[in-house]
Amino acid sequence: MSDLNAILAPGMLVRHPDCPDWGLGQVQSNIGGKITVNFREHGKVVIDGARIELVPVFDAGN
Fold it and tell me: pTM of the full predicted structure?
């Protein structure tokens, strides 16, 4: 798991780097490198943090 994925906590907003059409996602959980995210345009997805580095969003207006 990347350093950035390790800091992701429930409620944080993220984007998937390979799927911009999924829109903004909200982290639901981050347990053992498995990150569950609910994306606005795609729904709930479990992501392997060792394979995908999610992009934290600190300003949801952008």
Answer: 0.89
